[in-house]
Amino acid sequence: MRRLVAAGLAATAVIATAGTAGAAGNQSSTGATIGVEVQLGGFQTPPEVWRDPCPDHDPYTEHYSIRDDRQYKSGDVKYLNTQVAPPGSTQWVVFENGEVTQTDGDTWSTAVKTHVHWLVGCRDPLTKEPLFPNPITSNPVWVPLVTQETVVPALYAYLDRYLAPPALSWPGEDRQFGWLYVNTAQDFRIDAPPTITLTATVTNVTGSVTGTVTATPSGVTFEPGEPGGGVVPCSVGAATAGYSTLTPGCHYRYQHSSVISPTNAFGTRTVLWWDVTTSSPTLPDHSLPTISYDAVEVAEVQAVVTG
Question: Whole-model pTM?
Fold first, then answer.
């Protein structure tokens, strides 16, 4: 059997520091369960939060560093709360691409907050009067928010690194020539894929969160590559089961010899589906495919009649 291409992963996202994997001892019907502890970058507390800018501002010598919940960012979009009011009536000014618009508190509540505003400056130690009349303009610092909504997407970007494409094999192939035969049920198998669980614990001045992303193998589809071949679905359990000539498992019956192909082989496509769950309430459960491409040669049985 000739393997042409194996991969089919989506583009891998690089964040900061690669995680390290260690296989756990427990086994499942789909193979080992592998836990991966990922060290995420991009959530560090900016040094300006702690840096004291006050020695040369007598009498404003007291350094203050305060979280300012009147301002948030969602990605590159900045929100400023313009008044103190009950939820639903709070007005927010939205700064995006240099333009200013206004929205209400309910609309803002649906946005994923990625950064919080931090006030850093100097004030009089007796009167607590800040050096700048408007504290919003005094040395503003944006601090990454540590929440499930921010940590899990960063962790999710690592998932493709650990989801291998299915490794297809044909246990009943001709051992001498490495080909299959037409009009015969040909079992196919894949290597048992593990369940992958990514975990990251992130801490900064805004809080501490442990996020998880789990991918569980859930199904296999096989496309044989011959004209009219269609798609063959199969469970992961059947696709990784032992081979028996008496009890066919996941199989396909080729109707044509591969001599009809310009390359003398049919190009196959095997998809392994993963069910993905996370600890974030804003990232819904979904399915994710990994794909491998192979080439299979199919021969006809030649009969010789003598008499």
Answer: 0.78
